[in-house]
Amino acid sequence: MTVSLSKQSPVRAFIVRAGREPLVHFLLIGAVLFVGILAARSLQKPVVRIDAQELGQLAGYWSTQMQRDPTNEELQGIIHERVDEEVLAREALRLGLDKDDMIVRRRLAQKMTFASEDTASLPEPDEAALKAFFEKTKADYQAPPRVTFRHQFFNSDRGKDQALARATAALGKVASTQGDALGEPFLLPLGYSDASLIDINKDYGQDFARALIGVPLNQWSGPIASAYGYHLIKVDSRISAKTPTLDEVRTDVLAAYQEQARKARNATFLADLRKKYRIEISGIPQTVLNQPETN
């Protein structure tokens, strides 16, 4: 049975008539294109991706600080905080907020330095190279002199001249009394066994430490000045400075060699990097900037 157009419902008749209009076709095509563009833009959005390894690290840091594992809600907060940090950082870079920022610039330079060091594997030196380096730097590994000594102290708080007079008078008596009780109370030890001269120098000063090397053994000498007052000293034994063999300090020498090689490679890396740029500083001629650095 055929139904005439006049008997169709008004809504259906409107739809049929609208479907024949070119304007409707244009609007439909535009709507489809608009939806397609939105979908394409959504696919083109920068991706913030947090993989399983990074998520594990974030949760691990949190657990270390809090001494327990995070709950699901806390873990969600950790993720949100990490995402917020990432999008804020990217947006700051997009807006150029990193420009002319000394802290950001130094941090980026530091990370670039670390990256260059990580990618530059340093070869192990051969025996001849290590020996040559050790010969140039052996003074750095010299064991300082060591002394075993006793001393008597005379306080200079009431005047240096009085303290010096008391110490001088005591030196004339130590032969008969053996100097067991002629000195005055002192906060630091009155006796040292196998002490490094470097440590003595730190506590008493250079003049005191030098005197321990020069005075005769097994007899009282002085007075010797320090920052605290005056001292009578008696050195019981003394071991001269010793230069070790390469085998005795091989680990330290190798570490120093590699550190020097790392610095040299970093200097070369920076010099090559500078060649990629034209450096201009207001008021300074280019010829000055191009002069090699002197160490």
List keywords for this structure.
four-stranded antiparallel β-sheet; 12 helices; 4 strands; 4 domains; elongated; alpha+beta; 295 residues
Please describe what this structure looks like.
There is one protein chain. With 295 residues, the protein is an alpha+beta fold. The termini are far apart. The protein folds into 4 domains: 7-37; 50-85, no CATH class; 116-142 and 247-295, no CATH class; 143-239, Chitinase A, domain 3. Strands 2-1-4-3 form a 4-stranded antiparallel β-sheet. The protein has helices spanning 10-19, 22-43, 52-66, 72-94, 102-119, 127-137, 160-171, 174-177, 197-204, 206-214, 250-274, 286-289, and strands spanning 146-155, 191-196, 220-225, 229-239. Mean pLDDT is 80; it is low at 1-6. The protein is built from 12 helices and 4 strands. 12% of the residues are buried.
> What characteristic shape results from the CA principal axes?
elongated
> What's the mean pLDDT score?
80
Low-confidence stretches: 1-6
Number of strands: 4
Structural class: alpha+beta
Helix content: 40-55%
Total separate domains: 4
Strand order of the largest sheet: 2-1-4-3
Kindly identify the CATH topology of the largest domain: Chitinase A, domain 3
CATH class of the largest domain: Alpha Beta
DSSP strand content: 5-15%
Q: Just name the CATH architecture of the largest domain.
A: Roll
